[in-house]
Each structure stands twice: as structure tokens, then as C-alpha cells.
Amino acid sequence: MKVALSAVAAGALVVAGTVLVGGMRSDQGDSSSEPGRNAALASAPPVAPAAPLAPPAPDASAQADQEAARQAEQRDKAKAAKKNRASSDSSGIAQVACTKQVTSAAALTQALSGAQAGDKICAAGNMAASRLSISKGGTPANPVQVIGSGSTVVKGITVTASNVVVAGFSAVGAQAPGISLNGSNITVRNNTVKHPTGGDYDGLRFFGKNLKILNNTITDINPDGSGAHADCMQTFATDKQSPASQNVLISGNKCQRIDNQCLIAEGPHSSAGDGSGQGTSSNISFVNNVCEVGASQATEIDDVQNVRVSGNTILGKPDKAFSFQNKSTGAVVTANKIASGIGYEVGMDGTSKTGYQGPAVGGGP
User: Which end of the chain, N or C, is less surrounded by CB atoms within 10 Å?
Assistant: First the structure.
């Protein structure tokens, strides 16, 4: 009985071995003793390894969110860069590519005395004890540029040369006028004048041809009870030192807290009777300025032809905004904003109506 059981067990082992080794049943016994089967196994092609599992397909909504975030970041960067450029451009003050850099009044005076065409002199610091005086210019293509930092304080600005650019200075408590220009091809921009004193307490005076007065702030122009005729800007033609002015652009300026007028422009035959009688004052553009005045008009044009007055904001309560007299012909007045307390926009005499374009004349000059 024991012998029979052992034989059965042995047979079971053989069958199990056949299944484990060959992966199929063999009727010939142990596969290790079968040369034919070994040869068949050796000649069988190798089994290729299983391909790695592919990563799951990205979620479409997640991709869209990532792309939107990337684009938003790019837009933010572009807006920031544009804002920085706009800030730099609108200030008009760029102390880059300077040929000379100075930080004292003495150094600035020395740099100006040796200035040559194309020089860009950059000044920083407080120079409140000295007036900035420029008597050497460049050429129309290569002016001498004198550039402050925007907070560079000087005791007034005087330009008596042609082909000059001045920007970025603050004239506080200067001897009037706070800024004085006399020459050709002069640009004065992005400066501040506050309460000049003495004389007529004027903020800025200009004489010459091809002048640009841009984006300056002129404030607190009043005579300190002296009875002086304090104006934001003025030109006249009385002698060689004060010649007639032509081709002048006055744009983007702020005249704030002005005791009298924003602009007085008088030609060589002015009605005041003190003109030189020499030359012609003409082609003055007064555009996009803000005027806060205390006189009976914001601008007074006397013997100046072809004056354009456009896009200005006039504050205060003068009788009229703009006055034209004494053959101030060819005037153009458009798109100005006039405070409600002002009597009428344009005052004009009969000698100035030739070539006039603008709103109906409301009364006399």
C-alpha cells in the first residue's frame, strides 16, 4: 500500500515539473531529458519586452489655464515696460549719453563755458545760489543740451545763444523773469518756475525765432503787493535786445496762480507805443496749456499775426478768454475749454478780424 502511494506521488511531481518548465504538458516525461524539445526552445524567437506605459494625456483645460497664465504674464510685463517708457518720455528728462556730468554750480559754469555743438551737459544737485546762464550754443542739427534731473535747483535760467535745449531745472525765488530766452532754435521744456521776484515778477520772457516752450510749470506769479504787472509769459519788440518773435510754439505748459495773464505777446508796433517799429511778430501757437488767471483776459495779442490758440483750459473769471487787437490778423481759435464764469471766449477789434477763424467774437479786446 505504501509502495503504490509513493508511485502516485512521484507521478504527480513529474507532471508538475513538466508544467513549470515547458509551459505545456509533455507525454514523454521530464523535459530536461528531451533533446528535441530543447532545440525547439532554443530556436524560438525572443519575446519582446513589454512597451512602457504611455503617460496620461494632458488635461485640455489645464493646458488652457497654463497658456492663459503665460499670456497674462507677458501682457503684464509689456504694460510695465510701456509705462516705464512713457514715464521717461513724458518727463522729457533723460540724463543718458551725457558728454559731461556736473554736481556743482562751479562745475556747471565751467562746462558751459567750454560747450561745443552736440554736447549734453547733465546737472544734478542743489545750485540754488547761482543762475543758470547759457551763452554758447550748438548748431540746428547738434544743439547744446543742458539737462537737469528734474529737481536740480537754480536761481533762474537765462539763454542768450541759439541752438540750445534746456530741461529739468527748478527756478525757485529767482530774479524775474524766472526764465529768459533770447536767440533762435531754443527749446525750454519740463522746467519749473516758482514765484520769481523783482521787476515785473514775470515767469518767462522770450524773444527770437523758432522757439519751443514745452511742458513747463510756472506758479505763484504775483507782485507781492508791489503793483508790478506779473504775467506767466511775455514777449515784446522794443529794441535789439528784445527783437520781434516768430515761429514760437507754446504747448503743454501750466500757468497756476497767476496774478495777471498767461500770455502777453506784443509786436513792434504795439498799441502801448513803445515798440521798435522793426520787423514782424508772427506765427505763435498757444496750444494745450492750462491757465489760471486773475486779469481781465488770459491772453493779450497785440500786433502779432497768425496766432493759433487751441486746446487750452482757461480758469478764473476774466471778462474774456482771448484778446486780439491792433492788426493781429489771421488768428485761429479752436477747441478751448473755458470756465463757466468767463464772460466770452474771444474779444477782438475791427482791425484784427481779417482771416480770423473761430467762435463768434463776443466783444471788444
Answer: N
What's the pLDDT score for residue 71?
81
User: Please, which pLDDT band fits residue 94 given cuts at 50, 70 and 90?
Assistant: confident
Look at strands 313-315 and 120-123 and give their pairing: unpaired
CA atoms of 150 and 217, how far apart (whole Å): 12
Nearest alpha carbon to residue 183 among 233, 223, 226, 133: 133
pTM (two decimals) = 0.76
Residues 6+ away with beta carbon under 8 Å from 326: 267, 269, 270, 271, 302, 303, 349, 351, 352
- The three-point CA angle 356-362-365 to 5° equals 75
Q: State how far the Cα of 54 lies from the Cα of 248, in Å rounded to an integer.
A: 75
Using DSSP's 3-state secondary structure scheme, residue 76 falls into helix
Run of H or E including 134: strand 132-134
Listed residue (121, 125, 124, 152) closest to 134, CA to CA: 121
Confidence of residue 194 (pLDDT cuts 50, 70, 90): very high
DSSP letters along 42-64, please?
HHSPPPPPPPPPPPPPPPHHHHH
The answer to whether 316 and 339 are in contact (CB under 8 A) is yes
- Answer yes or no: are the C-beta atoms of 181 and 146 closer than 8 Å: no
The number of beta carbons lying within 10 Å of the beta carbon of residue 278 is: 13
